[in-house]
Amino acid sequence: MSDSPQVLFVCVHNAGRSQMAAALTTMRGEGSIDVLSAGTEPADQVNPAVLEAMAELGIDLSQEQPKLLQDEAVAASDVVITMGCGDACPVYPGIAYEDWELDDPAGRDLEAVRLIRDEIDARVTDLVERVLSRRVPSGETQD
Fold first, then answer.
1. Which is the catalytic residue, given 7, 8, 10, 11?
2. H or E element: which one contains 30?
3. Is 143 within 8 Å of 100 (Cβ atoms)?
4. DSSP letter string over 51-120?
5. 11 in active site
6. What domains, with CATH codes, occur in the chain?
7. Catalytic residue among 38, 74, 81, 89
8. Is residue 83 among the annotated active site residues?
9. Is there a contact between 20 and 51 (Cβ–Cβ < 8 Å)?
């Protein structure tokens, strides 16, 4: 078991927002954070516009597959970030939860996906700093 903090990103389809957030957290955290992503109703593949927008940053998501959210992943996480999945995510005591209101990239053109990506990146940069300095209180919801 790793001593690194674990962050789980959850959206509905795990084909856009949560995939981008996970990849950006892995990059910004430089391997210091264990990162997972999942969806409450996973899609068949990652959104092609998301693949292209992330490739512009040198991040290859072409081998990623949307995954179904498992209770075990939530229970093992230190921080769970939800993105539009509502109450479908299980809640466990001692885990910090945040809900990020973000536009869904589904059906959006590349320019719109870039804007969503950049907003996620700004939030991820802040999250990484807080997680690595342990400023995300355990079991409290942050907005």
1. 11
2. none
3. no
4. HHHHHTTT---TT----B--HHHHHT-SEEEEES-GGGS---TT-EEEE------TT--HHHHHHHHHHH
5. yes
6. 6-142 (3.40.50.2300)
7. 89
8. no
9. no
Residue 137 falls in the annotated catalytic set? no
Measured CA to CA, the distance from residue 133 to residue 50 in angstroms comes to: 30
Write down the pTM of the prediction: 0.89
Q: Identify the CA nearest to 26 among candidates 17, 36, 16.
A: 36
In terms of residues, how long is the chain?
A: 143
DSSP H or E run through 37: strand 34-39
Q: Pick the catalytic residue from 10, 35, 50, 85.
A: 85
**Across the 143 residues of the chain, what is the mean pLDDT of every consecutive 10-residue run?**
86 95 97 94 96 98 96 93 77 87 94 98 97 68 46
